[in-house]
Amino acid sequence: MLEHDSNFLVETFKQYYFDHFNLIHVPDRSSEREFGYKKFNSGMIRHISLKTDKDLRLMLMTNVPSDVFCSNAYYSFPNLSMGEKDWKEADLIFDIDAKDLNLSCRKEHTCIKCLSCNEVSLIQDICPKCKSNKLDFVSLPCQNCIYSLKKETLNLIKILTTDLQIRRENILVSFSGNDGFHLYVANSAYNTLGSKERSDLSDYIMFRRAIPEAFGFKKANPSRSLLPELAEPGWRGRVAAGLFGSKSNRSKGVTKIISDGYHAYRQRLEEMGKNSIGIRIDPNVTVDIHRIFRLEGSLNSKSGLVKLACENIEKFSPYTEACLIDDKPVEVLANCPIVFRLKNKKFGPYANETVSIPKFTAVYMICKGIANLA
Amino acid sequence: MVSLGHDEIAKYPFLAEAGKYLQDKGFTLEQFATDPDLQIIVDKAYERIESAANGKIYNPKFDNSDTFSFLIAIILLKLSGMNTLINRFSLAEARRAEKFLEKDLVDNSNKTSEELAIKIIRDIFSVSVKKDKNNFVIPISDYLRHAVNFHELEWKLVNRHVESGMVFLSRHETVRLIRRELGGYIRSRIRAANTPSLYKGFEDKVNRLVDLAKKFTVSATISTEYPPCIKHAIDALESGENLSHSGRFMLATFLLGRGQSIDEIAPLFKNAPDYNEKVTRYQINQIAGETGSNTKYSCPSCEKLKSNDLCFAIPECDNIINPIQFGKKRL
Question: Which residues bind [4Fe-4S] cluster (chain B) (predicted)?
Fold first, then answer.
């Protein structure tokens, strides 16, 4: 990032933290958690202990980080090196990211940024200007992405509250600040599980590695009555809904499954996990019991938007509610071939032109790498 | 600790405090070493170890002398100091107890047995089991802690009946779930027991056990240039511990990578509790790419081994990324 761009972001982020102290707090049991942060144009600094809101604010004002993180794990000595921290337990965490949802709209609002000549253009295989194939992808999520993310989040909450019997009030949902949602489950029976156990739990949630035998198809002697029914709890019920749609279609569906055979059924289950009923979480996040996860209330340097808790997921409008930078006009050199919306206003397309836009949009575009200060 | 009657203690003798049990019954260890009338129990104890060493489960029909034979077997094992026999004995005793647990879990005629079996599973393995008609239900978190030890897909949570935070299992599956830890529990009890002084009457049996253990001693040479993960795996096999599938895979691929032949590698596995020469050779052949798909597998990376809890890095590892590089890293 160019120095004057990063200086501008540092000033803006500092102002945000100064103006919004009320939004940013240390989480519960803060003295047992590890904090970390990144600064613009610099690497990660970890193994920090912050006990109070005051400590956190002091750190924000002194260092003006580009990103702030806090562990989901609880340690006896959070500021010691990893091997000496003495891990106690970790909240269960989930990350649902738009890029993992394989949405068809994505290619319409993703542009490429050439790593050789910095040209930004609509999605294609090579840079139209210098023909380089070293490209970065920049996605500016649309309403459909948000809608799909919310749907996925609600489906995940349903599995967590029914199958896993986690109380809804113990699940905290946040907009990640870029193009995803984060979920935290605190104080559950799952807190003491290690990484391997969490990996099995991720496979459960994603409906991965299901075998036909568990879903009613014995290799040797398949029986119609063993295949799942819609009224059954857990994955068997959801598989039945995915396979048959309604109770009246079951008989016909069962006949087809049995005639197609064991391997076809296995493939069908696998395909359902990937593309329909499986919840598309990022398993690497859930299995990581030492992760430092973006802190709620902090700005995301990939977008300049805030990681914000959302109580009413359906009504939550991330590109309005999480956009908390002011609207003073800023002149930028913008290069963005696609249209996007922030705070209910339409921006773009910009063809390498100098424009005056509100600061929140300028920050968003600079963070995304599609504008520079003029 | 669980309070036990005669029958229960004969079924689950590892729950008894050895010294205290003998004392309560009015016996001393010396009596077993000297009294000709008690020799039959010492003989039984020896047979019990011998059958375990040969991978057999000791005859599960029981009488009260069974508890004594178990306790004397532990004394003999401790006196022999042969870890490989202790491991084999623990595994065989676990299999034996497993049969009783499975039967007791659904013993409608004897509620006490049923409660005891549930209590053993709960107290020793921290799995809170509840009975629900013909099923046993356990919390998902408890299930996962034990099920991750299995590699078969049927144990994955996604392939289980899950409802309201609970996993539903048959009695056989419930007992299977704790099998591995049951062996470990018995082994840890034996290891923690005091080694008594050697009475003359036990000498012959102890010497025979030392001879018996020799049958399982690995004669392969171990180079000092092996990395700690490989040494650890060889140590585990040598002491008769059940090395995981990924541990065995690592060992075989490493040694093949270092140019050892299948004939040289196969004997290393002969001490594994479930050793079968034909199967071992077949598997090493597959890994070497000499049969099957002709794919020659290479040793997993250090990172992969770390995630499988097989890494025991030492400073000499010097940030290598694969065990095969150990000792070869350029300066």
Answer: 229, 302, 311, 317
> Taking CA atoms, what residue in A is nearest to B144?
A197
Name every chain A residue with its beta carbon within 8 A of the beta carbon of B148: 196-197, 199-200
Phi, psi of B285, deg, nearest 5: -60, -45
Interface residues of chain A, partner chain B, Cβ below 8 Å: 162-166, 189-190, 192-193, 195-197, 199-201, 203-204, 207-211, 213-214, 233-236
DSSP lists the bridge partners of residue A138 as A111
Q: For the residues A125-139, what does the mean pLDDT come to?
A: 91
Would you call A349 exposed, middle or buried from its count of C-beta atoms within 10 A (0-12, 13-18, 19+)? middle
Within chain A, all domains assigned CATH 3.90.920.10 are found at: 21-99+142-203+282-324
Task: Supply B170's token pair.
Answer: 């048959």
Query: Is the CB of B159 inside 8 Å of chain A's CB atoms?
Result: yes
DSSP B97: H
- Give the fold, CATH level 3, of A21-99+142-203+282-324: DNA primase, PRIM domain (3.90.920)
- B313, HSE (Cβ side, Cα atoms, 13 Å): 16
Distance CA B301, CA B304 (A): 5
Q: Tell me the nearest-neighbour CA distance from B148 into chain A, angstroms.
A: 6
Residue A370's SS3 state is coil
Is the complex ipTM higher than 0.85?
yes
**Separation between Cα atoms, residue B93 and residue B56, nearest integer Å:** 10
Q: Which of B41, B34, B176 is closest to B95 using CA atoms?
A: B176
Chain-chain contact of A211 with B144 (C-beta, under 8 angstroms): no
pLDDT at position B1:
46
**Residues of B within the annotated binding site?**
229, 302, 311, 317
Give the Cα-Cα-Cα angle A46, A52, A54 (nearest 5 degrees).
100
Judged by DSSP in three states, B235 sits in helix
Contact A208 B161 (CB under 8 A): no
Q: If 0-12 CB within 10 Å is exposed, 13-18 middle and 19+ buried, where does residue A309 land?
A: middle
Q: Is B315 on the interface with A (CB under 8 A)?
A: no
Is B139 close to A235, i.e. CB distance below 8 A?
no
- Mind listing the pLDDT tens digit for each residue in A42-75? 889 999 999 999 999 999 999 999 999 999 999 9
Q: Is the pLDDT of residue A365 over 80?
A: yes
pLDDT for the residue numbered B205: 92
- Which of chain B's residues have a Cβ under 8 Å away from the Cβ of A289? none
Q: What is the mean pLDDT of each run of 10 residues along chain B (331 residues)?
A: 67 81 86 90 92 79 77 93 89 88 82 84 85 90 91 92 96 87 88 86 91 73 74 80 85 90 85 77 88 84 84 83 77 37
Place of tokens 């069974």: B66
* Minimum Cα–Cα distance from B147: chain A residue: A197
